[in-house]
């Protein structure tokens, strides 16, 4: 195994076995005499890989047959604008069409700002006044039935809050940014109109974006959408309208295989809960560390925490790195620390971190 544990928020740590397999196959994939990065995306070998990759994703997430799976580029941030461009059609920019947003942190706030270029952003819920430390009660979400859709960010990587429920029977399509918690637990895809996720947390490397869209939402794109970013055209061409990020899809396929071998999302959900519980318990039983998020909304993926004595921050990071615990510095907008413990973070990494945290407190804050 690796000597270091990487807690980076993204691009995040990759599964060790996946990297080893990629290293082994880097120069000769499928006996092609070339890397997967060097062969045609229209060749039968790569097309078979892409189809198998989609099939594995469908199996893991139990995606209904009336949903299309797209392998796109541009990252999750690009989808903030591409979603209204693809879903609003002729209604875009008419000054009357609204889109509802649940503002639970930095990324959902950014999505609402970007969306306001194309429609009226209606903030149904905002956690700003509290400092983005909670999500709305599932029974208290009141959407405008005339809005085009409701947008949520299911896990806020900077603020460390997560939705642990699906918004069921919503009168308008629910669009969810699942960039940082997709594949970490079971979800009911049928409750969503569209799910999107940048790959660089739980799926694979940066450069690939997965979009899962219900078929009735296709065919609504504005005439201003470039062909390569048009969901309908990409769906009609099996995400091969232009050259896809082939190496990222290859790595994603390896990640999905490993998830299946480990027991799928049922087992990942158990493991991720165990890892998060271990770290939160260390924080809550400490006088030095603090996590501000409401207990019921605490993310299992991204855990920010602060030190009671901020003058110890630099020393904490320096000693953590000396203990092979890297990339724990918090986001520049909130400071403190952040431990991203996505699927690929082994429980041994969390044990090493919590042991270090307890030892550090004993030495410097007793």
Poorly predicted parts: none
Strand order of the largest sheet: 2-10-9-8-5-3-4
Number of domains: 2
The overall pLDDT average reads 95
Number of helices: 9
Describe the structure.
The protein is of the alpha/beta class. The protein has 2 domains: 17-261, 3-Layer(aba) Sandwich (Aspartate Aminotransferase, domain 2), CATH 3.40.640; 263-364, Aspartate Aminotransferase, domain 1 (Alpha-Beta Complex). It has helices at residues 16-25, 44-61, 75-87, 106-115, 231-236, 246-261, 264-284, 313-322, 347-364; strands at 5-6, 67-72, 98-103, 120-126, 150-153, 155-156, 161-162, 174-177, 194-198, 209-214, 289-290, 302-307, 325-326, 337-340. The chain has a 7-stranded mixed beta sheet. A 3-stranded antiparallel beta sheet has the order 11-12-14, with helices on one face. Helix 4 (106-115) links the parallel strand 3 (98-103) and strand 4 (120-126). Helix 2 packs across helix 6, helix 3 packs parallel to helix 4 (106-115) and helix 7 (264-284) runs parallel beside helix 9 (347-364). The longest helix is centred in the C-terminal third of the chain and has 21 residues, at 264-284. It is globular and about 65 Å long. Pyridoxal 5'-phosphate binds at residues 107, 157, 177, 200, 242-243. It is an enzyme of class 2 (transferase). Homodimer.
List keywords for this structure.
366 residues, alpha/beta, Aspartate Aminotransferase, domain 1, 2 domains, three-stranded antiparallel beta sheet, 14 strands, 16% strand, pyridoxal phosphate, transferase
Please outline what is shown here.
The protein is an alpha/beta fold. It has helices at 16-25, 44-61, 75-87, 106-115, 231-236, 246-261, 264-284, 313-322, 347-364; strands at residues 5-6, 67-72, 98-103, 120-126, 150-153, 155-156, 161-162, 174-177, 194-198, 209-214, 289-290, 302-307, 325-326, 337-340.
């Amino acid at each position: 195994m690796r000597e270091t544990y990487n807690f980076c928020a993204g691009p995040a740590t990759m599964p060790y076995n996946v990297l080893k397999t990629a290293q082994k196959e880097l120069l000769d994939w499928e006996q092609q005499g070339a890397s997967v990065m060097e062969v045609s995306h229209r060749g039968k070998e790569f097309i078979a890989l892409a189809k198998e990759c989609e099939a594995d994703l469908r199996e893991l997430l139990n995606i209904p047959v009336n949903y299309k799976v797209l392998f796109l580029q541009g990252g999750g941030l690009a989808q903030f604008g591409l979603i209204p461009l693809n879903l609003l059609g002729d209604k875009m920019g008419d000054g009357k069409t609204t889109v509802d947003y649940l503002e639970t942190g930095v990324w959902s706030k950014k999505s609402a700002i970007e969306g306001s270029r194309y429609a009226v952003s209606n903030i149904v819920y905002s956690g700003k006044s509290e400092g983005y430390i909670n999500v709305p009660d599932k029974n208290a979400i009141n959407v405008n039935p005339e809005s085009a859709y409701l947008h949520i960010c299911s896990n806020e990587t900077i603020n460390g809050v997560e939705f642990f429920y699906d918004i069921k029977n919503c009168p308008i399509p629910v669009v969810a940014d699942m960039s940082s918690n997709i594949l970490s637990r079971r979800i009911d895809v049928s409750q969503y109109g569209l799910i999107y996720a940048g790959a660089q947390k739980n799926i694979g490397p940066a450069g690939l974006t997965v979009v899962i869209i219900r078929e009735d939402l296709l065919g609504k794109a504005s005439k201003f959408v470039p062909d390569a970013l048009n969901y309908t055209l990409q769906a009609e061409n099996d995400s091969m309208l232009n050259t896809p990020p082939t190496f990222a899809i290859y790595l994603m396929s390896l990640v999905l295989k490993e998830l299946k071998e480990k027991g799928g999302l049922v087992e990942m959900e158990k493991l991720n809960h165990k890892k998060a519980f271990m770290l939160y318990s260390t924080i809550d039983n400490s006088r030095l560390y603090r996590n501000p998020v409401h207990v019921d909304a605490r993310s299992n993926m991204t855990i920010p925490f602060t030190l009671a004595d901020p003058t110890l921050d630099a020393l904490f990071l320096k000693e953590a790195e000396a203990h092979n615990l890297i990339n724990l510095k918090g986001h520049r907008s909130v400071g403190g620390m952040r431990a991203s413990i996505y699927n690929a973070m082994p429980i041994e990494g969390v044990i090493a971190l919590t042991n270090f945290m307890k030892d550090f407190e004993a030495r410097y804050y007793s």
